[in-house]
Amino acid sequence: MIYSIATVCLSGTLRQKIEAISKAGFRGIEIFENDLITHNGSVHEIRSMLDDHGLEVVTYQPFRDFEGLPAPYRQKAFDRAERKFDLMEELGTDLLMVCSSVSPQALGGIQRAADDFHELGERAAKRNMRVAYEALGWGKYVYDYRDSWEIVRRANHKNVGLCLDTFHIFSRQTELDTMLNIPGDRIFLVQVADAPSLSMDHLSWSRHYRCFPGQGDLPIGQFVSNLHATGYDGPFSLEIFNDQFRAGSTEKTARDGYRSLVYANRAAEKSADTEALEIPSVNPPSEVQFIEFAVSDNEKLALTKLLSQLGFCHAATHKRKGVELWKQGNIHLVMNMEPDSFAQNFHQQHGVSVCAVGLTCTNVGDMVERAKKLEFSPVYGNPENDTHGIPAIYGPGQSLLYMVDDADQPPHWEREFKWHEDATQHAFLNKVDHVATTMSYEEMLHSVLLYRAMFSMKTMPTVSVSDPGGLVKSQALQTPDKGVSFTLNSTQASRTVSSRILDQYAGTGVNHIALSTKDIFATAEFMVKQQTETMPVTANYYDDLAARFTLSDEVIEKLKRYNILYDEDENGSFYQLYTSMFAGRFCFEIVQRNGYQGFGAANSQMRLTMQARELMS
Amino acid sequence: MIYSIATVCLSGTLRQKIEAISKAGFRGIEIFENDLITHNGSVHEIRSMLDDHGLEVVTYQPFRDFEGLPAPYRQKAFDRAERKFDLMEELGTDLLMVCSSVSPQALGGIQRAADDFHELGERAAKRNMRVAYEALGWGKYVYDYRDSWEIVRRANHKNVGLCLDTFHIFSRQTELDTMLNIPGDRIFLVQVADAPSLSMDHLSWSRHYRCFPGQGDLPIGQFVSNLHATGYDGPFSLEIFNDQFRAGSTEKTARDGYRSLVYANRAAEKSADTEALEIPSVNPPSEVQFIEFAVSDNEKLALTKLLSQLGFCHAATHKRKGVELWKQGNIHLVMNMEPDSFAQNFHQQHGVSVCAVGLTCTNVGDMVERAKKLEFSPVYGNPENDTHGIPAIYGPGQSLLYMVDDADQPPHWEREFKWHEDATQHAFLNKVDHVATTMSYEEMLHSVLLYRAMFSMKTMPTVSVSDPGGLVKSQALQTPDKGVSFTLNSTQASRTVSSRILDQYAGTGVNHIALSTKDIFATAEFMVKQQTETMPVTANYYDDLAARFTLSDEVIEKLKRYNILYDEDENGSFYQLYTSMFAGRFCFEIVQRNGYQGFGAANSQMRLTMQARELMS
C-alpha cells in the first residue's frame, strides 16, 4: 500500500506541508482543495513542488454534493466535475474523491445515484480519470459504506470505485463484514483516522477530534485486517481533522502520522511493491528499572537529602563518571552530574529534572528493530560519556526512555558501578508505581502513540481534574500486567499547576514519581522521624472521608496525622502521601495499593489545590 | 429572589471566590463540596469569611446517590446525610441539594424514592434542615423534573422541596408547562445555566460548556417567566461548569455572572424583598455612527493617507482638541491625537488601534439606566478633555462603546467640530457594514452577553475557520434590523493570525472594519488609481469560483483583476475586497451586498492565509 496523508491534517502553508510530508517518509499525498485554492502559485508550480519532493498525488478532494441532483443542478454538478478534471490533469492526479451529498437539493434513491456515477465514470474515462465515492457519516441519504458500495456496484464502471474511511464507518458503528465481499480492486482509496470515544454529533466529532491511528479508541486493527483480506493494494491515507494538529508543529505531526500508519498496518505482509512492512512483535516492558535525574552538585545534595528522608541510601557510585545510584527496594534513582553528558545537556535546557527512565525489557534487539520501523530512531548515547551502551528512544519532552535488556549479563549496574556494601538498606519502598508527566495537548497524543506502539501499553479512560486555575486532562497508560504505568497530564489553561510546571521546565516535565510501599503508616512514621516535609491535607478532607467511606475514627485520625489521602474502588483500597514540591517542580508520592486499580483521581483536585497553594506561597 | 452563584463557577481558591462573589453584588452563594474540602481552614473559618462578606449560603451541594438504595447502602446514605447536616450546621446553611442518583446500586420506583425522601425529611426536620431534590439530566432513573416533582409531592414533607435547574430541563428538552402546576413554595432552589446548542452527551455538555444566561442558546426567558408565575421567591442561583470560566479571571467572571442574572430576570416585578429589578427596555442602536482611532501624529499621517486612497476626506477638525474627522457617505472615522485623552491613554497600552465605536441610539437616558442595572458602569469621559458628554460603556478590550442620542440637538459633530466645506466628497463608500474584533475565548462570552443585554443583538451560528496556524472560532452578532453588526473571532492556537493580533494589541483588538459600497468595481477602480495596496488573492481561487458559481468569464476576470472575493447565499451575492494590513494590525474591507445575509465565512480561510503570509513576510 502507498502511505499517504491529506494536506488538511497539518498546519502551515502548502509548501510547508509538502516539505514535512516528504521528509516524514510518505510517498503519497491527498491535495485538499482549500490548500490548493489558498496557495499563491499556479497548479503547475504545485506539481513541480510535489515532483521535487517525490510525492504522488493519490487524490484531489473533496468533491461535494454531486449525486442525486435534479435539473438544473445536475448539469451544473457535471460541469463542476469537468473543471476539476482540468485542474487534476494539471496537478497530475487521476483520482477525484467524491463524498456523499449533503445538499438540500439532492434526491435519494440508490439507482439514481448509481446512474449519476455511471455518467461521471463515462466522462472520467474520456479524460483518463477515476472517481472514488465515499459515504460521509452525516450524508443526507448515503452514510453507510454498504450503500456507497451498492451504488458503486450498480454504477458498474471501471472508472468508478469505492473510498473507505475508518472514521465514517466506525462513527456510524457499521459492521465490517461486508468489507470482505468487496473486491480489493473496486476500492480506489482507503482513508484511516482514529478518534477518541466521544458521544457527540458526527460532524463536530469528525471535524475537531479525529486523531492518528493508535491515538484514539477506534478498532482500526480489525479494519486493516479485513482490508488486507480484500487484496487492496492502493493508497493507505491519513485524513485527520484535529484542532491540535492544525495548531501544532507541521513536521512533528507529519512524523507521528507516518509512524501511525506503520503501526496500523503492522500485520501487513511484506511486499516489494509497497511500504507495508512487518514490524517485530515484542513483549511489553516489565518494570521501571531506574529513573535518572539531571542535577547540579547543589541540587544533588538537596535531592538526595530528601531521598534519605524517604529511606533511600547511596548504594553505588559510577566507576568513571559523576553519577550516583540511590536505591531502596527495587527502586533505582540515578543522580547524573557528569559534565557534557546527555543529562547535563538536558539540565542546561530544563534545569533539575528527570532526564531518563529505564524500562526492563526482553529481546531488546527486536525492540530496537521495532523502534526503527516506527521511526522512533534509537540512540545509544555518546560513547565517550555514556558507556553503558543501552539503547534508548526519545520520550516525552525529549527525555530518554532506555530499554534495558533483562538478559544483559553482567547487568550494567555491576559493570559500571562500584557498590557501597556498608550502605544502610531500608525497606519501606519497593518499586516505582507510576510516573506522572505534564505535557502539552499535542505531545499527549504523540506520547499515547509512542507508549502504545512501542510498549503495548493500554490507555485508561481520560479524566478531567479541577485545578484552581483551570481544568487538567489526565490520561493513564499501563502495560497489560500493570508492571509499568505512566500518567500524562495536560491543560490549555495557563494558570494551572500543570502550566506552571510546563513553564518551569521549558516544556514537558515529570510532575511526580509514585513509589509503592507495603506499609504506608510505617513509611509515614519513618518520614516524620526524618522530618520529611509532606503536602498538607485539609481537615475538611478527613471529615468528608468519614462520610464517604466506612473507616474507623482511629484510622481517619491516623490518615490525618500523616497527611495520607485515601480512596477505594471495587477492588480495594488506596493510600497516597505526597512530599512537598522539590524546587517547585516535582514531588514524590508514596502509595499503598490493596487491590485498588486506579491512580487516585478522586484525590487529584486536593493535590492540585495544595500544590497550587505551595507554588503561590 | 436572592441572586446567588455556586463556587464551582469560578477559578481560584475559596477565599478568592468568596471575595469576588461578594464584590460582584451577589447576596447568596452555593458552597460546592470540593471547594470546602480543599480549603485549608476550618468550616468555622469559612463561615466567618462568608459573614464578613455579607454572603448567605443558600445551599451546600451536591449530595449524590442518595435515593433508591437497598440495604446496606441505604443506611450508609442516611449516615452520610447526617454527617453533612453536622457540617451544614457549622457552615450556617439549612439547605442540602440532593441530585438524582447515578449509583449502579440504586433501584428505581417513584414511591421508593419518595419514601426515602420522606425519611430524609424527618431527619432533616429534627436538625432544622431542608433538602432540595434535583433531576440530573443523566440520572439513572430520574432525569426529568416532572419525575423529581412527583417524588417530592409524594414525599409529602415540608422539609423536602424541589430544585429546578434550567440546564437539566432544557438539555432533555422537557416541556415547561408542568412547572406552572408546582406551587412556588415547594421549590426550594432554582439554578440557572445557559449553554450553546451542541449535540453531545449530556454529561460532557454540562460539565464543560455551560455558560451564563444570555451567553448561550437556551430559552431561559421562557423558564423565568414560568418561574415568576409559580410565585417562587427563593434563591436564583448560577451553577455553571465552564472550562473558560475555570481558567479565567475570578472577578470578571463573577461580574458577568451577576449581570447575567439581572438580564435573565429582566421581566421580574419589582419587589422590596428581592434584588429582582426591572430594567428599562430600550431600542437597539440603528447604526455605527463613528469609529475612533487612537493614533500618534505619524500614524495619523499614514492612516489618513490610506483613508484618502479609499475616498475619504478630512471633513472637519475639532475646535479645541487634536482630533480630526474623516468622512465618506455616512461613515465617520475619528483620528484622536489629543494628549491625555482616553484615546491617547489607550494608545499607550495598545498602540495604533480602534479605541472607541459610536452607536446611534434613541432614548440614551434609558440606555444609561439599563447599563447601570446591568453593572456596565457608564462613563462620560474626562470633562477637561472629552467635552462631548456622550455616555459610553466599556466594550471589548476596554475600548469604549459610545451611545449617541439621535435626538441630540445640535449634534455633537456640529457643536464640537469646525467643518471644511471645501473638502472633496467622494461617494464610493456609504456606511459601516460590520466591525470584526479578535479576542480571547473568555472575552467572547463576555462580549456576547454585553451585546445581547445592552443592544438586543442576535447571535448567528458560530463558525470555525481554518487559519494556517490553527482554527479560529467566529461569532457574528446583529441588531434585529441588521443596522449594526459585529463579528468576534477567537482562537486557542498560538500561531494564528488572530493570536498575532492579540499579541500585537496586548489584548483584544479590531481586525478589520467592513465598509459598504453600492458599486464595488467603481470603488476598486478608484482604489487602483490611488495605488491602494490590496490583499492579493490567488489565481486558484478564481478557477474554483468559476466551478462553484455561474459567473461569466468576464466577471471572473474583473474580480481577479481587482482581488475581489465573491460569495452567494440563497438571498443574493456578496463581494469583498480587503486592503493590506495597516501596521500589521487591521485592515479595511470593502463590501457590496446584493441581498446576501452573511459575512463571507466561505472566504475567511483565504483571507487568513493571505494575512498570515503578509504578517510573516
UniProtKB/TrEMBL annotation, chains A, B:
VOC domain boundaries: 287-406
Domain of life, per lineage: Bacteria
Swiss-Prot/TrEMBL cofactor(s): a divalent metal cation
GO biological process terms, semicolon-separated: 3,4-dihydroxybenzoate biosynthetic process
Positions bound to a divalent metal cation: E134, D165, Q191, E239
Metabolic or biological pathway, per its Swiss-Prot or TrEMBL entry: Aromatic compound metabolism; 3,4-dihydroxybenzoate biosynthesis
Binding residues for Mg(2+): H434, H512, E589
Catalytic activity: 3-dehydroshikimate = 3,4-dihydroxybenzoate + H2O
Enzyme class: lyase
EC number: 4.2.1.118
Function: Catalyzes the conversion of 3-dehydroshikimate to protocatechuate (3,4-dihydroxybenzoate), a common intermediate of quinate and shikimate degradation pathways.
Protein name per its UniProtKB record: 3-dehydroshikimate dehydratase
Source organism of this protein record: Grimontia marina
Phylogenetic classification of the source organism: Bacteria, Pseudomonadati, Pseudomonadota, Gammaproteobacteria, Vibrionales
This protein's encoding gene: lly
